[in-house]
Amino acid sequence: MTLDQQLRQRLSASELLLCPGELLANGSIQRDMGVVTSAGRFIDIGPKEALVARHPTLPPIDLPGHLMMPGFVDSHHHLTQSLGKSLVFGEPSEIFRRIWVPLESSLDERLLHLSSKLAALEALRGGFTTAVDAGTRSAGEIGALAKAAEESGLRCVLGMICNDRGGSASPQQRNAILDRAVAHLADYRDHALIHPSLAISIPEAASDDMLNDVATLCRDKGAIFQSHVNEHLQAVERSLVTRSQRPLEHLHAVGALGPQTLIAHATLVTPDELNLLRDTDTAVAFNPVASSWKGNAVAPALQMAALGIRFGLGTDGTRSDGFRLMDAAETSQRMAFGLATGDSSCGGGWRWLEHATQGSAECCGLGSITGDITVDKAADFLLVDLEVPEMTPSWDRPWELVRYGNRDQIEAVFTAGRLRLWQGWPVDWDARALLAEVREVAPAAINKAPIQRVHPTSEVHRERHGKAGEATPSRQRGNGEPRC
Questions:
Q1: Can you give the pLDDT at residue 480?
Q2: Residue 467: predicted pLDDT
Q3: Strand (E) or helix (H) holding 229
Q4: Neighbours of 368 (CB within 10 A)
Q5: Cis peptide before 393 (omega within 30 of 0)
Q6: Cα separation of 369 and 156, whole Å?
Q7: Which of 56, 239, 329, 335 has a C-alpha 20 to 30 A away from that of 150?
Q8: Is the pLDDT at 101 greater than 90, yes or no?
Q9: 200 near 210, Cβ under 8 Å?
Q10: Which ranges of 369-430 would DSSP assign to H, the alpha helix?
């Protein structure tokens, strides 16, 4: 048995006394510390020598050259969209209308499970121990999504969509939706890894009564209400035309903002709307990669922080890599705001690390459960290899993690005290078999879905625009194909 195999075996124990070279806890880097996990939680943290003395029956596991840190918390994900990930590249905004809704609506229960488990695997590989799922429009049972998260070991805030305006919905239909919503909250109330939530896709997808009822239900049941708000210019303008209110103002008018509400994006917000978020204590999922790949704007996250608006970092299902997400958050603020104002700090590094962990956990209603290495919280954490050139020498570890950290440094991923991934692969299920099954079924699933793409694939785009920057004659663009 190799040293790696021996360490993996030791880390699989139900109780652990870990002594990492560095510990990220309570927002600071600490050394010569130890952490004890038992029954899925952190039960003791302190100086190494004192901790070893307090737990003489637990053999200490020394991890020099490793950082023990909280797992990342993805505050906004779409776990059932993984089969079509790169189909949206180069696409104009509101891709949910042309790609995601058609794709999700075509998924049966098997495809729903496969898509969700693939996304969960990607999340864990990227250091996310928790993901907030915004809800699926699949015809498959939402239980298949929950099963996939549970099997993979990903902690999941599981949204159930409660839209009642896909056409016209009668009061009886709205009542049926609310009955299912109550059942969803009850079904997962005491689950170890699944935390129920309710969602309205976008404010215009629900009646005013439904928006208020769902937000109130979440408030009363201690759950999170989710919605995509002020993400795309088209949606803002539609709301202005139909209601003379912007989407965020719409939510406020019907009483759907508040501490229980987590809005995704908020990229197009006015000063008055920022005040609304602050005054109602509504949380925001800041999705910087989504802004870069397919958005109309970048959310003013630094201004939100200055105003005391709660926000977490989310992927929006774009790229499940916690380190690159933090880098994107800092970069987006610097490019969109910092350069114009001479702000060379743009959060000082630590802010993005904090909002990718504890800040995100708090926004999604799990602040007392995960997001930090603290006694009594769930043992959701990462072991990160620091003995790499990028981290040597070290002068500012938090900022180094934001700018230099990489997914391939993650040696081990734990949720609820259990080793889930070792060196990028699950320890208790066959991920390669999952990948093979996905490759087998994905083509038929995509071909079946009535997806409408505007932008061509890279190879077609290259053919159209020629090699080495030489333009291709328009007659070679194809019959009826859109020009990019």
A1: 40
A2: 64
A3: strand 224-229
A4: 12
A5: yes
A6: 12
A7: 329
A8: no
A9: yes
A10: 397-404
| Separation CA 342–CA 332 (nearest Å) | 14
Instruction: Enter the tokens of residue 233.
Output: 């210019």
129-180 pLDDT tens trace: 999 999 988 766 899 999 999 999 999 999 999 999 865 456 668 899 999 9
- Per-chain mean pLDDT for the chain: 92
Distance CA 26, CA 70 (A): 10
Among 296, 300, 272, which residue's Cα sits nearest to residue 284?
A: 300
Amino acid at 98: R
| Calculated CA dihedral for residues 124, 82, 142, 110, nearest 10 degrees | -110
- Convert the pLDDT of each residue in 378-392 to its tens digit: 999 999 999 999 999
CA 19 and chain centroid, separation: 29
Pairing of strands 28-30, 311-313: unpaired
Contact residues for 371 (Cβ-Cβ < 8 A; gap 6+): 70, 73, 130, 357, 358, 359, 360, 361, 362, 377, 380
Phi, psi at 136, each rounded to 5°: -115, 150
Q: How far apart are CA 368 and CA 70, in angstroms?
A: 13
Lookup: tokens for 80: 């059932």
Q: How far apart are CA 101 and CA 80, in angstroms?
A: 11
* Beta-carbon count within 10 A of 222 CB: 12
Strand order in the sheet with 128-133: 72-77, 128-133, 155-161, 194-200, 224-229, 261-265, 283-286, 311-313
Task: In whole angstroms, give the CA distance from residue 431 to residue 439.
Answer: 12
Q: 230 near 185, Cβ under 8 Å? A: no
pLDDT tens, position by position, 43-80: 999 999 999 999 999 999 999 999 999 999 999 999 99
